[in-house]
């Protein structure tokens, strides 16, 4: 830039030249990446989430689910289960006697395990780039929580407590059956023995349990979840990430249900090997829609909600089902921008650099004037939130969208996500069980093209066309 | 479509609209006077309408003012004033009647019944009413004992109330404090045990603590999330567009062009303006388009890029002049003029879509304090409509000229707006709705309101 004027010379606020990052299409000053583009979590310091509650109150369930959610929305999160540390240390679990408050040896080991876990927390948050750590233990005394808060203060972490309080014997029994019987602690016991021992274990904590208190803990940030989400007490939410955590925890439930995910029936553009667009179903696609209807009827699902995108092919699929459905624009397929309706061969021909960049980092790569998988996740977050609120739902969507949703339920990393297999004419039935999700894949027996393109070996920008197109699936 | 959220469309052939809530919701405020019930009611109503949920508030105090005409003193509110009690009960009933009308016949989705509702008896009456009419009830209680907060409340919104137009400040404050006392003895706060079957949120000490009970559905969950994110700390929000861009001067919409020299001049002036404002801890947000980022670069301060602040996607019309849109897509152009809020560009977006994608921005703006948002014309219209409570009809025609900063400061129940032009010339990009919006209109009629450009 010319600087002929004195004025220009003196002005220090010359806007810096901008370049657009070729992968994510983000405008930045030169090669600087100091400018923050909107990440979900705007805390400047890491957050330590601390669970509180008697055994069998769902602390680990909440820890794992919350960790999965935060990682999916892009907040690096890790859970630290003190029970795991204890199992490492002890190797063999004998009985509840280990947890008796007067068992000095036991108390000593448990304190060491907690310290060891906190050490790893410090490592994760301060050294390894973690943003949130979930410290999963009973933490039932004010004394123990005081120790943790001191630790957090020394290390510059914000603390947020998540307490689960429940006295419903049925819920506790169900909890024990679902997750304790299969626990390594009880591998060599019968069900009755395990339950009996576990109930004694709970008793060991009960007398010293000091729940979070409105008055005594008025300066502490926390959410107290009562009776599996019937009631919540929320105190001193201090930032964005805590607000999102509270919102999430208030929307999840444990009522048994299933989520069905599938793509639209095969479309005319699918057959031609073209991506994106808004085409209608092929005749095989229509056949799939009919089979889908039969499948659903056989499943005899109670109060099934059906969601589609606002693209013709998902709506056509839903229309065959003969029941009401809701259209969500946010379920639309990833926007391929300038590459919309192209074949991979054409993308390679017209945009070989883009095609290579995409193979280098398929999650973060944004099509010119289009979207990235990373963008997709952000726009699908309200869908996930509503799926958590709902019970039985069928989501008829698209390949990239389905990959994102599946990654959330199956805790897949951003590296795995864009390569998850979501073939046409196949329904995935997801049923929450224990700490995770059972997946049943049901192929409805109607043939279709394959639209899955694996990552090729050569992702270099100078690769040959054959190398680039090596993994393109067949089409017309 | 009535009663549906902006994100869903009903399935035409089924006749049944698939909505966010299946039955209307009656939100009921609870709390002593000067606890922010009306502030919450108005703000919540504004938010719900903006996200596309038809909502209206019904303030019983207003019904009382209609009825009584002249407010004499706190004596009216004495619990032993039988005449007063009778009138107040009648006003509450009249308001509930209007609630029924709104939710059952006028297509309303949510009604906010704003009154003290401090006794369990009154709340039971309302619950009965809701049950009879098939409405879900959700209580919002505000509890606060901090005398400073209550004092500030009285100063901000009571002194200016019609009740106190003929009093001086001291008289008004004194009378109001006595008014509060009239309610205190009979106040039955929502109780964890006694009211465990009700759906409610209890807001304590202006948001320090919340008790949330039995949230039943999506709307209630969104209401709770919203209420937990708002605050009353004084602050200002600055809205402006990027500096004039290359495509702006050519009369072209959309695209991702850079700033013109005048646009760069604006960016410099913006920096100076911000310095003079001496804003504590200002956050700066931009979109991910070059022109807003270039503008922010001149501020020499950190800024955050939000993809969701990007300008409305004009799809096949991206980078066209209005004259070209008329030439190539005359039907689309006419449809847009017929319903600019709901109209979606082919392969693009509508204002309605924009609002949906901007909702997280609004939520975060509520959480934040001083923020400058450098965005785009359509985006700025949407954000402004939220703060100034504009309807879907008004929104797409709000004036958001280039090189002008709007400073929004919450005051009383609304928002003070100061418009500051930074005195750098720019093209006008505002196209008014033409008279003739018929699809058969002539080119001249379609283009009559297009602003001048190169």
Mean pLDDT across every amino acid position of chain A: 93
Strand percent estimate of chain A = 15-25%
| Largest interface by Cβ-Cβ < 8 Å | A-B, 50 and 54 residues
State the helical fraction of chain A: 25-40%
For CATH, the homologous superfamily of the largest domain in chain A is named as Phosphoglycerate mutase-like
Order of adjacent strands in the largest pleated sheet of chain A: 5-6-4-7-8-9
CATH class (first level) name of the largest domain in chain A = Alpha Beta
Number of domains of chain A: 2
Show unreliable segments of chain A.
1-13, 38-42
Distance between the termini of chain A: 52 Å
Structural class of the secondary elements of chain A?
alpha/beta
Count of β-strands of chain A: 15
Q: C-alpha Rg of chain A, in Å? A: 26 Å
Shape of chain A: globular
Count of DSSP helices of chain A?
Answer: 16
Largest sheet data of chain A: 6 strands, mixed
- CATH architecture label of the largest domain in chain A: 3-Layer(aba) Sandwich
Oligomeric assembly: homodimer
Question: What is the CATH topology descriptor of the largest domain in chain A?
Answer: Rossmann fold
Notable characteristics:
16 helices, 2 domains, alpha/beta, 476 residues, Rossmann fold, six-stranded mixed sheet
């Amino acid at each position: 830039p010319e600087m002929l004027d004195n004025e220009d010379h003196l002005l220090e606020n010359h806007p810096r030249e901008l370049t657009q990052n070729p992968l994510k299409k983000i405008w930045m000053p030169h090669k600087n990446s100091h400018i923050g583009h909107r990440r979900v979590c705007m805390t400047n310091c890491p957050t330590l989430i601390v669970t509180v509650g008697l055994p069998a109150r769902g602390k680990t369930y909440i820890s794992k689910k919350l960790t999965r959610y935060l990682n999916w929305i892009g907040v690096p999160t890790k859970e630290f289960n003190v029970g795991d540390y204890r199992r490492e240390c002890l190797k063999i679990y004998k009985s509840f006697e280990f947890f008796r408050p007067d068992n000095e040896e036991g108390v000593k080991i448990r304190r060491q395990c907690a310290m060891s876990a906190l050490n790893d927390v410090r490592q994760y948050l301060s050294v390894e780039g973690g943003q949130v750590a979930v410290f999963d233990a009973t933490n039932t005394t004010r004394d123990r929580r005081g120790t943790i808060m001191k630790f957090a203060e020394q290390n510059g972490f914000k603390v947020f407590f998540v307490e689960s309080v429940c006295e419903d014997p049925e819920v506790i029994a169900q909890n024990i059956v679902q997750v304790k019987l299969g626990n390594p602690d009880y591998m060599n016991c019968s069900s009755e023995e395990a339950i009996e021992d576990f109930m004694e274990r709970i008793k060991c904590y009960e007398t010293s349990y000091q729940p979070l208190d409105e008055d005594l803990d008025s300066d502490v940030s926390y959410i107290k979840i009562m009776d599996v989400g019937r009631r919540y007490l929320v105190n001193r939410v201090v930032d964005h990430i805590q607000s999102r955590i509270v919102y999430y925890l208030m929307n999840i439930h444990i009522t048994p249900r299933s989520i069905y995910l599938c793509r639209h029936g095969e479309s005319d553009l699918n057959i031609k090997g073209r991506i994106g667009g808004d085409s209608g179903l092929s005749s095989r696609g229509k056949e799939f829609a009919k089979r889908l209807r039969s499948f659903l009827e056989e499943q005899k699902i109670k109060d099934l909600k059906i969601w589609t995108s606002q693209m013709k092919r998902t709506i056509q699929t839903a229309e065959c089902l003969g029941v009401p459905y809701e259209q969500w624009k946010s379920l639309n397929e990833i926007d391929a921008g300038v590459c919309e309706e192209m074949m991979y061969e054409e993308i390679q021909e017209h945009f070989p650099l883009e095609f290579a960049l995409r193979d280098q980092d398929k999650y973060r790569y944004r099509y010119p004037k289009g979207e990235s998988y990373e963008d997709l996740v952000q726009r699908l977050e309200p869908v996930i939130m509503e799926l958590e609120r709902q019970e039985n739902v069928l989501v008829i969507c698209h390949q990239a969208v389905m990959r994102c949703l599946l990654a959330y339920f199956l805790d897949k990393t951003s590296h795995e996500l864009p390569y998850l297999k979501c073939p046409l004419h196949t329904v995935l039935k997801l049923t929450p069980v224990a700490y995770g999700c059972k997946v049943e894949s049901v192929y409805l027996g109607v043939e279709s093209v394959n639209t899955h393109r694996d990552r090729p070996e050569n992702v270099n920008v100078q690769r040959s066309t054959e190398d680039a197109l090596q993994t393109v699936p067949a089409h017309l």
